[in-house]
Structures are given as structure tokens and as C-alpha cells.
Amino acid sequence: MTDLEIAQKAQMLPIREVAKKLNISEDDLDPYGKYKAKLPLHLINAEKMKHSKLVLVTAITPTPAGEGKTTVSIGLTEGLNRIGKKAIAVLREPSLGPVFGIKGGAAGGGYSQVVPMEDINLHFTGDFSAIEKANNLLAAVIDNNIQSKTHSIGIDPRTVVWKRVMDMNDRALRHIVVGLGGHTHGIPREDGFNITPASEIMAILCLSESFSDLKRRIGNIYVGKKFDGTPVFARDLNVVGAMALLLKEAIKPNLVQTLENNPAILHGGPFASIAQGTNTVLATKMGLSLGDYVVTEAGFGADLGAEKFLNIKCTSAGLAPDAVVIVATIRALRHHGGAKKEEYNTPCLEKVKIGIANLEKHIENVQLFGLKAVVAINYFPNDSEEEIAYIKEVCAQKGVQAIVSKGFSEGGKGTEELAHAVVAIAESGESHFKPLYNNEASIEEKITTVATKIYGASKVNYSGKAVNQLKQINKLGFDKMPICMVKTPKSLSDDEKKLARPTDFEVTVREFEFASGAGFVIPILGDTVRMPGLPSVPAAEGMDIDDEGVITGLS
Fold first, then answer.
1. pLDDT bracket for residue 106 (50, 70, 90)
2. What pTM, to 2 d.p., does this model score?
3. DSSP secondary structure letters along 235-262
4. Is there a smaller number of Cβ atoms within 10 Å at the N or the C end of the chain?
């Protein structure tokens, strides 16, 4: 059966029954139908959090289809519950861009899924729509203020950096001109769209710890400059309150369930290649308040999602993982060993021996933060015993256990061994988290630290545009913020063609974007863009719905 067919046959519990497992009263639930609900922020309990364990799931550098972090995260949650732990999966919400693009849905796979799968992968509870509307309200107010003859604060349209967003892969919107058609239609200027997961509003929602914190951060959004050079922030446009009220419901985490009827919290959805790549602080803290174990994931490999989870989210929110799971697939190791797409599913120990260098680097990356890891080999039917044995041997040499995870085909039953290993690490106290850099360091120092230590680069280069923007960052006082690197997820370098573990390479910062509200600076490496495009044959072409409302082709 397909992922969708498995999900459609699931025997879901009413969401109030799932809530009971967490001792949440029905009065505290804000139901969105039978199987989804919003949770109030007062359920977060700092005292309870102290006694819970946080497990981060990351991965090696993936193939374009991904290596199953979400599947492993959900499967591990099932496994932990099977061995007697009160575990909750705390994950991101999917974006419509990948759903209709190349990757498909992001609700897990096989027998390790969160449900209702169709709802989660489509409009869910409307969080992304609210983020998009709040973002674009600010954009509309900016252009309206520039246009006004009576209310203008003197914004120089040439300096506006705030972009519009939409939750769809649409490359035609990356660079546009607005305000054409005469004076009644606005002032012409260059503009562009990012995808909603890259919106600063998304980043703010994911890092905020209260509604007042959310409003403070929105107010700190940098918009551009006045003609006299004075910086303009969102608070100067008197629109913070209106933007915040659009997020009144979106700030509340969403409760759903796994196929085995265990609780899962989904909230926020920034990509890791172009944003910070992890769910909200509020959802993570709520999970730690309600369960004994929280399993969360950070997008793409440990060079992207995990690095940002640790240097940005954990530092900001005072969190520290007790254990880390690094997801690896043998097909990805074959890929890094030179296998072509049509060879991904063909056993080849020699290619695995070449590709294993990528896994070794990601193990080292996790260890740089003082964290103890276990490798989860996300099992595929074409994995050979000799390939598995080799991976286990190499991992053992790095001081890390490698365990075959069969959550996709067996659900929680297939992840019990992994669950036991995670518990052993989490309860050993061997993880001692420390950030990779101090925020007081210069932007250049922070970039160099990540590029050399995490990516393995020998040098960082800057374009002329980036050099000029660095001067502006320093002048605005943004230089003491953490960095959120934008980079291809297909390589440890900024060149997607460099596979496995590249050496003797340099990376180039093309330009910067500012996220002063979220509280970080965004260096953009190589040719990465913050509005993806669709593939030549998008997944959307295989989707349909019949007269009975039955969906097909969504995965």
C-alpha cells in the first residue's frame, strides 16, 4: 500500500481521547474537527520540563527525495511508547511547496505517520495562511505608506528589503516589479517573493515564547530606510497589533496523533536550507511539559537543520538535547559514493565505502556540540547485510552505535531497539551541549566557524554586494545576532555537485538578508534562492480527488 492508503485505513481516535493520554482536559482543547486541536499556551510548565528528555533527529546529506527523518522521528516515538516511555513527536508542519513539488508530503511514511495525513499535508489548521497574511499585510502597509501624500514617514522605496511570501514553489515571483500602471497603482519598485517557510514571520513564530514576545519581535522587523538614512522598523508603521491578531490562533501548537494513536504536536514549518529548519519553541516546550520524552527533527543534514537548531533555537530558548539520532540510508551512501539515480537501489559495498565519509562528517558535527549520538539506518528492502555490517563497523570506530530502523514497514515494533539505545544515551547524561560560537563574535567569525568546522571549507569568500551589506549589518547593530546560513542541502559545500565529504573547497557568501525581528542574520551562499521552483514534472500532476472526497496521489 502507498503512504496515503495506509493513512486512509488508519483507525484514528477522537482527538479528545489522544489528549487524555497527556492529561489534557477537554476544556483546554480547541478542536479543528474530530482529529485535530489547538492547545493553549498555559499548558507549558517550566518545572515539568526539567524532568523530560529532548531527542533531536538529524540526518546525513540527503538524496533529493530525503532520507526519512520524519519517518524515523515518528517511528522512534512509537517505539519509545512501546517500551514504556511517555513520548511525544514534536514536528514541523508541511509546506505546500514540497507537497506539490518533488518531495511530496511530510507526515512520515509507511507505518510511521502522523494523521490525518491529508489534512496535515494540505491546509491543516491554517497556520501557514495566517503567517502569509501577516507577512503580506506589512508589505501592503509599506507600499501604502510610500504612496501616501499625507501619512508617509518618508521610506526610500529603493531601500525596502521586506518581501512578500506565498506557500508555493513559484520561481516566476523571485524578482518582480510592483506599482506599475500609473500613479493610482503605487510607486514602481523592484520586489520579490519568498516561500512562506522562509518568511521572517515564520521564524518569529517559531522562536517566540509568548504572545508579548511575538509582538516585540514583529515590532523589531527591519523594513528599510527613510530618505534621511534613518532605519525603519515594523513598529514605525503602527501595524504590529494588526499583524499579531492575524496570528492569534497560529501561535497555538497543534495536537494530532500517530498511526498507533500516540500524541504528536505539529507547529511551524521553516525549511532548513533557507531558514532555521525546526518547529516552534512553544511546541517543543509544550511537549516537554506533557511527556517524558520529546522526539523532534531538524531539516536536512546536520550541517543545516541541526546546526541551526543548536546554535539558534537552543541558545535562544535555553534548550539542550539529551540525545541525537542521525538518520542514514544506504541508498544515500551509494549516492555519495557515485551511484546514479537508477543505481540507488542496487547494492554496492564499494560505493557505500566511498559515501560513508559523509556519515562520518555528520557524526563529527554532532560531537562538536558535545552531544552523544546514535545512527539510525533507515531500512530499505534492497539494503544488503554486508552494507549494513560495514556501516555498523565504521560507526563503532567513531564511538557511535548504528541500529537498523524499520519504522516504515513495522511501525513502533521496528524501532524498539533504536528506542532502547536512545533511552540509554538520554539517561546516561553523556550529552553536554555547548554552542559552536558566541553571539558576541563578529558576523564574519561566526560564518567562518560554521563553514570551516561544520562544512569543512578552507575559506569563506564574499561578493562585493555582501561586503557592502556587512557594513550595513554592523551599522544597524545586528552583528551580535546568530547566523542562519542559506545553503544547498545536497552537499556539505555550497556546490551541490560536491558529494560525500568534499575537501579543499571554498564557499562564497553572495548576499545577506536581515531578520532582526527573529533575531538572526541570513548569509546566502552560492546560488541558493529563498523561493524554490517546481521540478519539470511536479508531484501535483499525479494528484486527484473524486466525488466522494477521496484523495489519490498525495504522498
1. confident
2. 0.95
3. GGGT-HHHHHHHTTTTTS-EEEEETTS-
4. N
